[in-house]
Structure of Bacterial bifunctional deaminase-reductase C-terminal domain-containing protein:
Amino acid sequence: MPKLVVTRTVTDTSAWANSQVVDGGLMDAVKNGKRDVIITGSLSVVHALMAEQLIDEYRLLTFPLILGAGQRLFPDDGPRTSLECLSVERAGAAVLARYRRTAR
C-alpha cells in the first residue's frame, strides 16, 4: 500500500516500503488525494485535519489504560464536531469504534 510520510525532519523513506515524503503542504496532499487517508500515530496531523474539517470518519482503537495526563484527541479549544457511532467491536484487549462526522 502506498504511504505518505508527513515530516519536518525525515528526507529518506527507503526504510519503509512504498513510502514517500509529502511534497508540498499536508492540506494539499489530503485535498488533492484520490484515496482514503489513514493516519496512525500523529496527533498533530489529526488536529490539523480536524481544524480544516477534512476528517469524515474516525476509527479509534482504544486500549483500557488510564494515564491521567497527555494530549487529547478532541481538545477543549478544538472545533466542535458532531459524530455518529457506526460500529463498536472488541479487538483482543482493545475496542475498535468507528464514528462518522454528521452533517450540521
